[in-house]
Amino acid sequence: FAFSADFPEGGISPDAVFFNDKQVKHNAKVAMGTYKLTVERRGYKTCTATIVINDPENDGRYRLNILLEAKERVIIFKITDSTNNNEIMPDQVAISPLTEIREHQVKTITNRAFIKPGIFKFVTLKKGYKTISKDITIPADEGPFELEEKMEPAL
Q1: Which of 100, 73, 81, 92 is CA-nearest to residue 133?
Q2: pLDDT higher for 59 or 19?
Q3: Is residue 33 a contact partner of residue 53, using CB atoms and an 8 Å limit?
Q4: What is the pLDDT of residues 6-53, one digit of tens each?
Q5: Residues of 67-77 as b/e, b for ≥16 C-beta within 10 angstroms?
Q6: 105: three-class secondary structure by DSSP
Q7: Regarding beta strands 2-5 and 10-11, do their DSSP bridges make them parallel or antiparallel, or are they unpaired?
Q8: CB distance 6 to 66 below 8 Å
Q9: Which of 9, 16, 38, 106 is most buried by its number of CB atoms within 10 A?
Q10: Model confidence pTM above 0.70
């Protein structure tokens, strides 16, 4: 089996692979035929497909290439004043994917927005505070992602 993901790009290992609802190990020997395939990995959508296993090269190998899609994650703002640690709500948080920084790719998000995992430029604005601009990686996972920042008052 060969499994890859939309983020991070490249090969990953699934948590579990099932043929007709029976878990199978990597490189398991499976008889030719039609199977219901289910692939599970934490932070990714479960992949289910009907596959036909055959051996066109007559070498005893079946090549299975599956792309797993990362689930969206909730972004929770944990933004505080750097002088007193009081929680503050930013006026604006803008994000842009770092792989394609273009003006039309920039979008404003709100607290508890859903975001697909990736690498982003985050810009956090609040009147009376210095702007924060930094690169942040949101990994694939099940739980919320906390955007923790300390904003410094503007002078």
Answers
A1: 92
A2: 19
A3: yes
A4: 998 888 999 999 999 999 987 788 888 999 999 999 999 999 999 998
A5: ebebbebebeb
A6: helix
A7: antiparallel
A8: no
A9: 38
A10: yes
